[in-house]
Amino acid sequence: MVSAGAKPLPSGATEVAQRRVTLLGATGSIGTSALSVIAERQGEFAVEAVTAHANADKLATIARATGARLAVVADPDRYGELKSALAGSGIAVAAGPAAVIEAAERPADTVVAAIVGAAGMAPTYAAIRAGAQVAIANKECLVSAGAVFMRAAAEAGVPILPVDSEHNAVFQALGGRPMDEVERIILTASGGPFREWPSERMAKATAAEALKHPNWSMGPKITVDSATLMNKGLEVIEAHHLFGAPPQKLEVLVHPQSVVHGLVAFTDGAMMAGMSVPDMRMPIAHCLSWPQASALAGRRLDLAELGSLTFERPDLERFPALRIALAALDAGGWATNVLSAANEIAVEAFLAGRIGFLEIARMVEQTIERVAADSAPQTPATVDDAIALDREGRLRAAELIAARA
Ligand code: NAD
Ligand code: MG
After folding, report:
1. How far is the CA of 155 from the centre of ligand 1 (A)?
2. Which residues contact 400 (CB under 8 A, 6 or more apart)?
């Protein structure tokens, strides 16, 4: 049904029910892009709940603009601020991590999982269990506990739809064909700001330099991950779970133009590529309307203007984070969980100026070795196991960082 006051449908268009959407991480980079898609597609969506970490003001503005029913701030100290900012609006207000989970569980057709890091695990899991279709941007969930999330989605009978541009491109290129018809899945990487830097120069790279991504504007953590190429490692692990692809079918190519996002090579020799200008609104819009498709305004790809596209193999010597992530995938679910946890701590330490750029990968590798030596870590069987192992990984990483400083 189209809501009262909505524009009449153009002739020939089919009337579709309004979709109820919840945005976890509404104030971030993905959250902002999702809001822009929702604003453009007036009448297609109704916003159920919006959540954020600590920016109560921005969250209140979003809640009012979207007419959300509930706004939740994860930091309990911001409750008063959010409550007064939404006074008289009729929008319900809550605070604290448990309230974020409750927001995720409210009846919704689609939940956009756009919280950064392991903090997104419990709410995203709750959304799946509650039976929502999850548009997943938070790659750390699948890296930390991919098997748990995929099993929960299968049990709930809901799809996990990939927002990450590479996976969204692969999802579209696959077109529902089974994995035994697939020879290879290729994820592209821009190569980040240090693609051509020698290691000696990278060792001295500053946070400001690492935060200058050549093609994408994103949150700080993923931007640093793109500079180390850890992001591509996380994405290979994400692809393994999302598509049920064995590690040997997954490949990475550096493609500095960020125009071809993902490719699928089939067993008959054909190859399908997912291409677009780098704009996260497109994969988000695809997930929000799926399985339907809707138009989206925006910049279009002009291949003649581009002239040429280039591809090269990643340099695992200069970018050890990718090598470490691929080794973690081979080692198993415990190792990818610890990889993600340690990486979050190491990136935080780098952004705070406490460790050098090349130390990010070193700290992650040492944390995985330390956790393996200290205990006999198992692949998490539940989301609680995953959160507990993640906590251990964080502690070990923090200790290692403190010890070297
Ligand atoms: P961001 O830092 O811009 O936003 C993160 C969001 O999470 C914010 O709304 C913040 O308030 C919320 N948040 C942070 N910590 C929280 C906590 N402890 N509890 C509750 N909420 C918390 O990050 P982003 O760039 O939007 O990325 C979000 C996720 O999507 C990441 O996992 C990232 O890897 C993934 N992703 C992002 C992009 C992109 O273009 N930005 C592309 C692909 C995948
Ligand atoms: Mg990506």
Report:
1. 26
2. 363, 366, 367, 370
